[in-house]
Amino acid sequence: YELRLTASDNLKENYTTVVIHVKDVNDNPPVFERPTYKTQITEEDDRTLPKRVLGVTATDGDKDRPQDIVYFLTGQGIDPDNPANSKFDINRTSGEIYVLKPLDRDQPNGRPQWRFTVFAQDEGGEGLVGYADVQVNLKDINDNAPTFPQGIYFGNVTENGTA
Fold this sequence. Notes:
One of its GO terms (molecular function) is beta-catenin binding. It comes from Heterotrigona itama. Residues 1-32, 33-148 form the Cadherin domain. Keywords: Calcium, Membrane, Repeat. The chain is mostly beta strands. It has a single domain (25-139), classed as Immunoglobulin-like, CATH 2.60.40. Helix content is 0%, strand content 39%. The strands form four sheets. Strands 4-11-10-7 form a four-stranded mixed sheet, with no helix packed on it.
């Protein structure tokens, strides 16, 4: 902004210009391109792990400030205390999400869907935080043979009956 100031003693006037520079503060958290990201992968696909499953991007609306956004995950399949147990991870600078281990869809221990949250923090991980939800759906493969829960089945058939 520029202000023009005038000083006057009723006989003479003098002018000067004052320039004001407004410096932006970090008042806008990072914003993701969409509130929810969805993707589908095939269960138990252990080829080339870790495998990229999704890329997310957040932007910071603060002007003239560094855009050094850091990404991190929390939720199902994420173990921050022991990352070796995590099923998913994110590249902290690019926002690329990877599956680290084969995922099973079938019961008793499998699940058809994984849900977690991705966070973006500005100022290199020291500033404001934005978030989005991530949903990874598992496509089933025919990897289980049919079974008969009971060992033996009994039934009756009527002689000369219709089927």
